Known about the structure:
Elements: H1 2-22, H2 27-49
Amino acid sequence: MRELDVAIEVTHAATMLALAVASAKHRRLALVSAVTALGFSALDLQEVRR
Protein backbone atom coordinates (compact mmCIF):
# COMPACT_ATOMS: atom_id res chain seq x y z
CA MET A 1 0.00 0.00 0.00
CA ARG A 2 2.92 2.37 0.69
CA GLU A 3 4.07 1.96 -2.91
CA LEU A 4 0.72 3.33 -4.06
CA ASP A 5 1.07 6.28 -1.67
CA VAL A 6 4.51 7.01 -3.11
CA ALA A 7 3.18 6.88 -6.67
CA ILE A 8 0.33 9.24 -5.81
CA GLU A 9 2.60 11.73 -4.04
CA VAL A 10 5.14 11.75 -6.88
CA THR A 11 2.33 12.26 -9.40
CA HIS A 12 1.00 15.12 -7.30
CA ALA A 13 4.46 16.69 -7.14
CA ALA A 14 4.86 16.42 -10.91
CA THR A 15 1.54 18.13 -11.57
CA MET A 16 2.37 20.88 -9.10
CA LEU A 17 5.71 21.47 -10.81
CA ALA A 18 3.89 21.73 -14.14
CA LEU A 19 1.49 24.24 -12.58
CA ALA A 20 4.40 26.25 -11.20
CA VAL A 21 5.86 26.51 -14.69
CA ALA A 22 2.52 27.37 -16.30
CA SER A 23 1.17 29.89 -13.79
CA ALA A 24 3.18 32.67 -12.21
CA LYS A 25 0.16 33.52 -10.03
CA HIS A 26 0.19 30.07 -8.38
CA ARG A 27 3.93 29.37 -8.58
CA ARG A 28 4.83 29.71 -4.90
CA LEU A 29 1.95 27.61 -3.60
CA ALA A 30 2.52 24.96 -6.29
CA LEU A 31 6.21 24.70 -5.39
CA VAL A 32 5.43 24.39 -1.68
CA SER A 33 2.90 21.68 -2.49
CA ALA A 34 5.39 19.83 -4.70
CA VAL A 35 8.13 19.90 -2.08
CA THR A 36 5.70 18.72 0.59
CA ALA A 37 4.49 15.86 -1.59
CA LEU A 38 8.07 14.78 -2.30
CA GLY A 39 8.81 14.89 1.42
CA PHE A 40 5.86 12.62 2.16
CA SER A 41 6.93 10.24 -0.60
CA ALA A 42 10.45 10.09 0.84
CA LEU A 43 9.03 9.24 4.27
CA ASP A 44 6.81 6.57 2.69
CA LEU A 45 9.83 5.07 0.94
CA GLN A 46 11.65 4.82 4.26
CA GLU A 47 8.70 2.88 5.66
CA VAL A 48 8.71 0.52 2.66
CA ARG A 49 12.40 -0.30 3.20
CA ARG A 50 11.92 -1.23 6.87
